[in-house]
Amino acid sequence: MGQQRQRVLGCNVGLGCALLAAISLNSAKAGWVDVDTPTDKLTATSLIDGSEYELVMSDEFEVEGRNFKDGSDPMWTALDKSDDDASAAGGGSLHFYNSSTVTTEDGMMKISSKLGKTKWTHYDPIKKEYKKVTKYFKSGMVQSWNKFCFTGGIVEVDLVLPGDPFIGGLWPAVWMLGNLGRATYEASTNNIWPWSFDTCDRDLQHAQHISACNNQNHFGLNPKQGRGATEIDLLELMAGDSDGPLPATEPPISLPYLAMTLQVAPGIPDNRPQSGAQPRRNDTTSANGHTQLLAQSWYDDLVTKGNTSINPFFYGTYLAETKPEEPVQRTKKEAFQADAIGSMHQVAQEHFLKPYTYRVEWQPGRGGRLDWFAKKVSSADTENSASSDDDDEDEWVHAFSIPDKSIGDLMGSQIPNEPSYLILNTGISSTWAFPYDVPEWCTKCYDCDDPNCACSFNPGFCKMMKSGNVAMKIDSIRVYQSKNDTAHPGNKHTVGCDLPEYPTREYIKGHEYLYVREPPFSYTDTGPLEKIKVGGGSCQTDEDCGGHLTPTARGRCTLSSSSFWRGQPTNKCQCNDGFTGPHCLAVDHNDDTPGVYDMKKKMSLFDHPRAFMWNTDMVIFVGILGGIFVGVLITKMGQRVDARRKGYTPVGPGESTRPANRGPLQFEDLIVTGRSI
């Protein structure tokens, strides 16, 4: 590193040199690690190549009562907004994301899903009228968007699945999305999600907003580089009671199961597999040798193991030309097919009773691969909660694998290479694990307090929700990366949302309107993300501010000086160094990965004088210019003084002189103006 520093700082190309130097000197390997992470979890072993990976991010959720509302945590943001995702058939999200549903309890992050009405008035720009909107469920989503991002490595999450395994209706998920798109903000993902395509294809250029065909992508993006918000779903739960194996699953899979999926564009345009059937790999012929059915186009070399099947029920989404009333707009040229390359992994009741570990190993870019793993359920797990060695290959099911060659050969796409962020959420959607067909007499509504809506829910769903005990519980989440780029296939592993190779923040800054909430929720917003609060939360004792925590007290409860002078004294939390949030319960994580946009903002004469590389020639040149200016100024002033004393006034070109009977010489007469005084 010392040689690299000397070499980079020794360059002589001004501003660009200083920018590269600042980016190259970071280590980016410690700023996001939770101090509560056990020492035996500071490294992990790849289950693919056996090499050692180092911990670069972790959250153990050991501190009770954390708040994840926007502006409260440096790593996570819990949303307060409607999830406006909707299907072409009109079904969609039934919940409102409320940050109060997310907290920490008993050493876990708890994302609760509950009954509760949320009402607001929404303006319809098409019909030009205000509409009242009501959502009958509240749930939670936390995301590390534009805070913690990474590219490649191992993601491990220990969690307890929410709800009843045999009652469908919840949609819990742990997933990753490229930082250029913000989950649930549909305007930011339109024609951005889920592109992973870095080739110029004129037929696809309109459908991929940031295309490799663009000679200049603007807003800090690299020219001729195809970009997108790629999606990797570590897990999505489909609960319910299927009364036996589901059709077309090989091996047989029943409800409940976890979907493990890569969503990618461009997708296969023609001769696609049909939902409800496995891909047809070969032509089928009649007895007399005539071809009856052609082989279907789907990805080769997909590997499933253990109790895992290729998912035959979801092969992707066609994002068609939109209607005027839809929240985003796409023209016919901008319509495209996105593929879902996924599997179904069997889970059991035990997964809803205690934490189990799930892992994805992500080797990014061309030549990379994706591998999903799940800890095995054994008799020892049900009888003894003691965990075994997480790096023991015998303890894992290698559920699903996607090699880059598979998607590259067929469609030219690649394993995601975008800086991506983490998302933990539970949704409630009429298009996910809800009754597929309802009787014609059924009133299609989704209010558990309305008896007329009962036929729209699975039996027992409303009773489960009324219990108030429905929550996904995350014991920990950790990200590991390899320091040895030659130990794994694909591209190097990186930490950061705004890398020189894949910048994002200047683009986001230039399109902030895509990343903010819709009215009326946006009226109090100052931008896509609020500034992190450092103390200021109401308190009674130091314990309310983390003062009781060991080994280091996080804050203390003090009398607010501003409230004292207002005559209404109140106590507020004051954070100790290294801690943040309204009640000082969050670690003040430091992202020591300087982003490209942040470095550009800092580039000034006073912040980085070395960036301008002053030398003798530049000093002499500036001195000569200054001397000429001063000389001309003095000469002009002298001419005007002499003229005034002689009784006439010099005038502009083409004008005659006139007497200057203006009394004593005035100060303003000395001002050089370019026309007569």
TrEMBL record:
Residues 266-288 are annotated as: Disordered. GO terms for cellular component: endoplasmic reticulum membrane; plasma membrane. PROSITE patterns: EGF_1, EGF_2, GH16_2. Residues 1-30 form the signal peptide. GO terms for biological process: (1->6)-beta-D-glucan biosynthetic process; cell wall organization. Pfam families: SKN1_KRE6_Sbg1 (PF03935). The chain crosses the membrane at residues 612-635. This is GH16 domain-containing protein. It comes from Ditylum brightwellii.
